[in-house]
Design a protein that fits this description.
The complex is a heterodimer of chains A (313) and B (306). Chain A is an all-alpha fold. Chain A contains 16 helices and no strands. Chain A has two domains: 68 residues; 210 residues, MetI-like fold (Orthogonal Bundle). The longest helix of chain A has 44 residues. Chain A is flat. Chain B has a domain of 202 residues: MetI-like fold. Chain B contains 13 helices and two strands. Chain B has a two-stranded antiparallel ribbon with strand order 1-2. In chain B, helix 6 packs across helix 11 and helix 10 runs antiparallel to helix 13. Chain B starts with a helix and ends with a helix. Classes of the chains: A mainly alpha (313), B mainly alpha (306).
Chain lengths: 313, 306
């Protein structure tokens, strides 16, 4: 408020300033409130300007990726860049599709994603159920120990898991090696357990009286009631297999078992001065669009999972 | 009584897959990492072949003295200490701005979240393309970022190509990490802002507090638990940085040969051989992350208002 009144004083004519101490006149109140609305509008304009500029910066890489993918190599390499392609050409997409072997790799990724999601859901549901509904010796200690493992960075496990799966099990160049080591997620068990515990115990006791078996109760009551969490887990897990790079590139050298990101990063678009950048950008578009589609349709579930985990992918 | 026993048995049956998988892929690795790090010159292939190794701390000495260790450490620390403060502050300002508008708020929110649902390696390749320069005849096609710099009268910079400077590389990777880190931070901070009681702001308004002061004296303290959360997760993520560099530079991890390599990169490069040293490096990284997290928690305990 002090600021605003100073502002008003600056604008008043010097003659008026002379008469001191001056009393507030009716129209002064008017100017003050007018000033305030003007300030408010100015602040709003500034906020929008800032947000729109930031949004454009955030969007620019996507824009550039899409525009580049429709250019010819010559247009892409031009000394003066074009912000809009002269002609929209799909040629780069054909090249990208072949170089990445997109169809085959897409199937690979979906296969690994679907199998690991299903298995992971079964394991997670059973474990969360045990923690939420049963009393057994060592329950709290086990749960605490499991939560404690979440603090250890995954990089610490990778070396041994590599030795175990490749050296001892001989699983290199298979799909199993991409699935089994990552089936258990303590975080998902924790999420689902919280969800299960919110379901009133009376429901369980009533079902017991009716002679419903535990598994049937789980299937008919608990799972439908925690569907949102299960959907979140499914989506994050599928996105995980689409985005995983480090482990697949370590253990599977055979192209037949590659996943999307490995194929994208390894695809050969040329060397040195002869890189086919439009095709590379087209490949990036092909990898990015499905993620955006999933985001558009399952926004709520993704944000649910993300805001609680802070783990990407 | 009988029923109770049956229940015990059932619970463990349901937990069996989880426990078995955790033992193999989580508990054993924890033990084995410690074990490998203190076996001199450990190599799993040799061990499978029947070799044994003597106890000692040679692995730690060798990895620390490894000629690339210091550079990897420096790069990791630089990237973390540049990107965490910048992205947190930027996310905070964006979140506050988003919280004080109504029209097209949802659309803007969606746009700011988009980088989160991308593939780090794929979009890293887009950033590469934006900063890349391509030789054309005896000159260059400088790339869109340099074209923008030129449009404002600046000189084109060799950002990521052969002969580019370390700081130019750091700048590019930092920009990418910040771009990538914003969505999560904005999401958490905006969630926090929406839970803030409006009365505080009304009181500030009545007192005639300036917007800037309101921001520092009311918004920041009230948001401090969320700020602490994004800073702590930011530091942990920063010390594990790897994919962003890989996306931009590819497996060479730099314009030439590993100039931008990070600690995690160093660990992964020695996974298939020299696992003793890789384990030592992983443990060193773990201790650093643990220590930094503890410091963060200690500081936030003193500063955070719950």
């Amino acid at each position: 408020m002090t600021e605003n009144i100073n502002d008003v004083n600056e604008k008043v004519t010097p003659e008026e300033k002379e008469e001191k101490p001056r009393l507030m006149k009716e129209n002064d109140v008017d100017t003050v409130s007018k000033k305030q609305t003007a300030m408010k509008v100015l602040v709003q304009i500034a906020l929008y300007a800032f947000l729109v500029i930031m949004a454009l910066i955030v969007l620019f890489p996507f824009y550039w990726m899409i525009m580049s993918s429709f250019k010819t190599i010559d247009e892409y390499d031009a000394l003066v860049p074009t912000l809009w392609p002269q002609n929209f050409r799909w040629d780069a997409y054909k090249v990208a599709f072949e170089k990445v072997d997109f169809g085959k790799i897409f199937l690979n990724t979906c296969y690994v994603g679907i199998v690991s999601t299903i298995l992971s859901l079964v394991i997670t549901v059973l474990a969360a159920y045990a923690f939420a509904r049963f009393n057994f010796k060592g329950k709290n200690a086990l749960f605490a120990a499991m939560l404690a493992t979440m603090m250890i960075p995954g990089e610490l496990f990778t070396i041994t898991n590599y030795i175990t799966t490749v050296g001892w099990f001989g699983w290199d160049n298979t799909f199993i090696i991409l699935i089994v080591p990552f089936l258990v997620s303590v975080f998902y068990i924790y999420l689902l357990r919280q969800n299960f515990m919110q379901i009133p115990n009376e429901l369980y006791l009533a079902a017991k009286v009716d002679g419903t078996s535990d598994l049937k109760y789980l299937w008919k009551v608990m799972i439908p009631l925690s569907a949102p969490t299960l959907i979140s887990i499914t989506i994050l897990k599928m996105m995980g297999s689409w985005n995983s790079y480090i482990w697949p590139s370590l253990v599977n050298s055979d192209k037949a078992y590659w996943l999307m990101t490995v194929a994208l990063r390894t695809a050969d678009f040329g060397e040195g001065a002869y890189v086919d950048y439009p095709a590379q950008m087209a490949a990036v578009v092909l990898v990015t669009i499905p993620l955006f589609l999933v985001f558009l349709f399952f926004r709520k579930y993704i944000i649910r999972g993300v805001s609680r985990s802070g783990i990407k992918g | 009584m009988d029923n109770k026993k049956k229940n015990q048995w059932k619970a463990w049956l349901y937990l069996a897959p989880t426990v078995v998988l955790l033992l193999i892929f989580t508990v054993w690795p924890m033990i084995n990492t410690l074990r490998m790090s203190v076996l001199e010159g450990y190599d799993s292939l040799k061990e499978i072949g029947g070799a044994s190794f003597s106890f000692g701390f040679d692995n730690f000495k060798q990895i620390v003295e490894f000629y690339r260790f210091k550079d990897c450490m420096l790069t990791t620390i630089l990237l973390t200490f540049i990107t965490v403060p910048v992205s947190t502050l930027l996310a905070l300002v964006i979140a506050v701005a988003l919280n004080s508008i109504k029209f097209v708020k949802k659309t803007l929110q969606t746009i700011f979240f988009l980088p989160y649902v991308t593939n780090t390696i794929a979009i890293g390749m887009v950033f590469m393309a934006m900063f890349n320069r391509i030789p054309v005849g005896d000159t260059y096609s400088y790339g869109i970022i340099n074209n923008i710099i030129q449009a404002f009268g600046g000189e084109p910079v060799n950002w990521i190509n052969g002969g580019s400077s370390y700081w130019a590389n750091i700048a590019v990777v930092s920009v990418y990490i910040i771009w990538n880190a914003l969505p999560f931070k904005i999401l958490v901070l905006l969630g926090g802002l929406q839970g803030v009681n409006k009365q505080y702001y009304d009181a500030a308004k009545v007192d005639g507090t300036s917007r800037f002061r309101t921001f520092w004296r009311i918004t920041v303290p009230l948001l401090s638990p969320m700020i602490a959360y994004v800073v702590i997760t930011g530091f942990i993520g920063g010390f594990k940085e790897y994919s962003s560099v890989l996306g931009i530079f590819g497996p060479s991890m730099g314009p030439g040969n590993h100039e931008m390599d990070t600690m995690v990169g160093l660990i992964y490069e020695s996974v298939s051989e020299q696992q003793g040293q890789a384990s030592a490096a992983a443990l060193i990284l773990f201790v650093i992350i643990f220590a930094v997290t503890m410091i963060n928690m200690y500081v936030s305990k003193k500063k955070v208002h719950y």
